Amino acid sequence: MTETKCYFCKGKAESSPKTGNSLGFDGYTVHCEICGHYNISDEEKFYLETSGFPMVKFVNCIAENIAIHKDEKIPTWISKHQELSGNVGKMVRRNIDEIINQPILHSDKPLSFLKLAASKLIKNTPFDTVVFNLQDFYSLKISEEHEAYEWMKYLKQEGYISSYQVGTDKLNSTTLYLTFKAWQLIEESYRNIHTNQAFIAMSFSEDLSEVEESIKKACKRAGWDAITVKDGDKQYIGLVNDEIIARINQSGFVVADFTDNKRGVYFEAGYASGRGIPVLYTVKKDHMEGEETAGKKLHFDTRNILYIDWKDAADLEKRLFDKIEAVINNKKEKRWISL
Ligand SMILES: [Zn+2]
Asked: 106-189: what fold?
């Protein structure tokens, strides 16, 4: 192990070179104080070092490192054309190009901030001191002090925190106190925690009926009853009715399949996501690449989202089940861990 700076957050880290034999590619294993243990290929490391982007540009990747660690897995950054091999085990494959440009929903940050604060009080009383460190801010995609100040000023103004003190050592040891109003908002956002209903947003064309079945089976195996709201022609032309809105609000998560590129699916996924309801994105593989024919290619703005790009119904069922287990069921148990 050689002392180095983390390739993502520039914090204190140790790294050691690895050859293709152990990881399937040439690169480094890094232990960073903020990002934790990750693997990175020579190509991806080169990209980070030569892209010329400021560090804040990497906040998506840093938050991804932290999130993967919470799931007790090891982020492994490699190029699209590279393969993992050997004992992949806990390695989770990621590509910098795909993660770095994911949109950051700034308006979600206040609620995520409060949820993270609440998760730190799980063994305390509700108005005890909450302590945030730099890693907590990175996990919320807040990478510099000025932004942290602005969010805490806003939360105090709105009555969600009663007081705060920003840590002077790179935001470490920041302290704050939650209010009753904060607990109301946090608990409201977890209102669906006990439901076992999931909502499916998809095209209901006949040739996708097998796909609908595979989504339902995957949900069932993972302990969820997946429902659809079919409203004939209205769904087809992309209108969303009150029943759809009500059903989404009652659901623990939404599976949004973008095959056939229906407008209703974009709306339902966006609505759920805005309400803090997790959305799992799926699409038939040929919609991700190739010719832009028959209006099937994905809408540009959502192409940075990580989709399950399924080959056939069986492939979708297997991968969706794994995703629900990893992303939804895992969080359900750790209910206070922020989204
Ligand atoms: Zn780092």
From this structure: Arc Repressor Mutant, subunit A (1.10.10)
